[in-house]
What we know:
Layout: H1 9-19, E1 26-31, E2 37-39, E3 42-43, H2 50-56, E4 64-67, E5 78-82, H3 87-92, H4 99-106, E6 110-113, H5 117-125, E7 130-133, H6 148-159, E8 164-167, H7 169-176, H8 181-202, H9 211-224, E9 235-238, E10 259-263, E11 267-268, E12 271-272, E13 276-280, H10 287-305, H11 313-330, H12 336-340, E14 380-383, E15 386-389, E16 394-397, E17 400-403, E18 411-412, H13 421-429
Parallel strand pairs: 1-7, 5-6, 7-8
Antiparallel strand pairs: 1-4, 2-3, 4-5, 9-10, 10-13, 11-12, 14-17, 15-16, 17-18
Helix pairs in contact: 1-2, 8-9, 10-11
The structure holds glycine and manganese (II) ion (2 copies).
Residues 232, 263, 274, 359, 365, 384, 399 line the site of glycine (GLY).
Amino acid sequence: MRYAPIPNSLFIKNRKKFTAQMKPKSIAVFNSNDIYPIGADSTLPFEQDRDLFYLSGADQEETILLLFPDALDPKHREVLFVRETNDHIAVWEGAKLSKEEATQTSGIQTIYWLTEFKKVFFDLMTEAEVIYFNTNEHYRQAVETQTREDRFIEKCKKDFPAHQWAKSNPILQEIRGIKEPEELELMQRACNITEKGFRRLLSFIRPGVWEHEIEAELLHEFVRNRSKGFAYQPIIAAGNNANVLHYVENNQECRDGDLILMDVAAEYANYSSDLTRTVPVNGRFTKRQRQVYEAVLRVKNEATAMLVPGTLWAEYHKECGKLMTSELLGLGLLDKADVQHQDPDWPAYKKYFMHGTSHHIGLNTHDYGALKTPMKANMVFTVEPGIYIPAEGMGVRLEDDVVIQETGAPYNLMKNIPIEVDEIEGLMAQK
Ligand code: GLY
Ligand code: MN
Ligand code: MN
């Protein structure tokens, strides 16, 4: 791995939190992601399944984690199955986890080779009554491919029809939503790498630069700082491109007088950061650009202050809508009649701000986390209001990642990343 080793105490704690919620005589199994084929003999880079990583730290393909807290033999209460290496794999792919390394990484004492899974699993299933399956219940999931996990579930249902089934996902949604100190450190590191990338850009952006050149600058800075690269597909959108919310072509020239919206951030050790900044291509905001920018910044600051324990996600979004409505009235983009006659299901502000203000962030950019119960300390959310005005050829979004505290305002993991107009203009003037 490119990242520094993570203390296995994190994964030991994570497993404890998961198994504490398991039913008596139950087994939970977690599978790696597949390595996805492109065609011929090429594949996409491997990305570990985030739940398996969260519970074991194992960042290798074809790994299986089995948790069985009531196993009669204590050595089978947690077992990690890893791919056995051989001389051929060593020459073509390089080092794989040895059993000792797998223990060191995960804190799990019992490591078996993957080839032993079938036999060990059958034996343990004869002791168990319930099997936990790890289905994807993220509120925005839209998966069409069959995962390794899906294939496992299908086979398991066929082979063990008399067992009861249970769901891992609600437990994971709850526990993954609240970050441990070790996780906050990794996320801070991802944010710090993102900061380096963004600062590099401030002296690089000028009229005539192409969006993909900006992407290349960021990738250079991210990778040299031990990141695999972007935490999600980067959006580098000059002028009207900013009004396409998921613009990822990044293939246009940046023109004098335009703003450029950049939703770009690094991953570190599989943890995401998620940043958006919008800056003037020529280094100076026009009066109108500055007005819109400062309206977005005010909404962001006021929204951030609402992220405290007890806040309900849905209520918070309603309040953010009200803040935005008042700014849009101030900018002359809405008038009072628009607001008076608005459809409560699609309020007038949605014309200029059509996405949510916040999402959980962690091992996934749009992470797991409770959304229907009150917010708790150590949840990490983005705050990302925007105003999109195609008629004026501009879109402004600002986004930081913040940690909810027991008391007081949330802690901004991106507090060192320039955001004030004067600071941005000052740094861009230093070419
Ligand atoms: N970059 C994805 C998002 O901001 O949610
Ligand atoms: Mn973003
Ligand atoms: Mn985001």
